[in-house]
């Protein structure tokens, strides 16, 4: 933006885009289901290998098994995120006190150094608990990728409950910001990104009757806001 003002993303999508997104979500759910079935077979055979290895110890086998377990764990996590993105595991909305949930996230090892400002203890949103936790985690993971200080706050703005995650990185170009949140869109070239994080956060927010708003301030970082109806 030439005037240095923040640019925004996640605008309302045309009907064609909405239909396409629904198709992608259904496809993700089917892939995750089939993938989980295959993974169950892999883990079952891995258990048999562990039993055989315990009966006939061989040098190096334990480390190979541990590596296979670790890879299987990552695969299971990817399948879980795909299912969440599809919305098939989002349940009935229930009142969730935000302060305890945000405190729980702040003490995670992968959130070390988080600048947390807790909301009033009575502030709640009506959402799926597991979904909301994962949505905030996805936003935090993206923010921590910048290697800068990450800020997490929650409060009431204009009659809505807003959970805000802000980093101090380089921000996104208007072109990237316009596509941020598209399923499977990622700017990471090392294969680490899956293009699911923002899409999951948006899916969870919409399930709760809210939305995800993104803003990028040139050279000052990105701000992601989960916006929910006030209870």
From TrEMBL:
Example GO molecular function: phosphorelay sensor kinase activity
Organism: Acidocella aminolytica 101 = DSM 11237
Record EC number: 2.7.13.3
Reactions the enzyme catalyzes: ATP + protein L-histidine = ADP + protein N-phospho-L-histidine
Start and end residues of each Histidine kinase domain: 30-231
InterPro entries, alphabetized: HATPase_C_sf, HATPase_dom, His_kinase_dom, HisK_dim/P_dom, HisK_dim/P_sf, Sig_transdc_His_kin-like_C
Kinase is among the record's keywords: yes
Keywords, ordered alphabetically: Kinase, Phosphoprotein, Transferase
Residues forming coiled coils: none
Matching Pfam families: HATPase_c
PROSITE patterns: HIS_KIN
Protein name, per record: histidine kinase
């Amino acid at each position: 933006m030439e005037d240095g003002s923040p640019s925004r993303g996640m605008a309302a999508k045309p009907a064609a885009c909405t239909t396409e997104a629904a198709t992608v979500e259904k496809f993700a759910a089917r892939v995750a289901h089939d993938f989980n079935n295959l993974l169950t077979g892999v883990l079952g055979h891995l258990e048999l290998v562990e039993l055989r290895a315990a009966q006939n110890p061989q040098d190096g086998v334990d480390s190979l098994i541990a590596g296979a377990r670790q890879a299987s764990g990552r695969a299971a996590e990817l399948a879980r995120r795909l299912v969440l993105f599809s919305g098939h595991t989002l349940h009935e909305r229930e009142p969730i006190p935000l302060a305890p949930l945000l405190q729980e996230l702040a003490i995670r090892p992968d959130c070390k150094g988080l600048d947390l400002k807790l909301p009033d203890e009575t502030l709640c949103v009506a959402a799926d608990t597991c979904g909301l936790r994962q949505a905030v985690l996805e936003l935090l993971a993206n923010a921590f990728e910048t290697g800068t200080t990450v800020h997490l706050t929650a409060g009431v703005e204009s009659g809505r409950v807003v959970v805000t995650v802000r980093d101090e990185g380089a921000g996104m170009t208007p072109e990237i910001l316009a596509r941020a949140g598209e399923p499977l869109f990622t700017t990471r070239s090392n294969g680490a990104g899956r293009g699911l994080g923002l899409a999951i956060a948006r899916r969870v927010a919409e399930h709760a009757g809210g939305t995800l708003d993104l803003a990028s301030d040139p050279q000052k970082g990105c701000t992601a806001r989960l916006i929910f109806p006030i209870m």
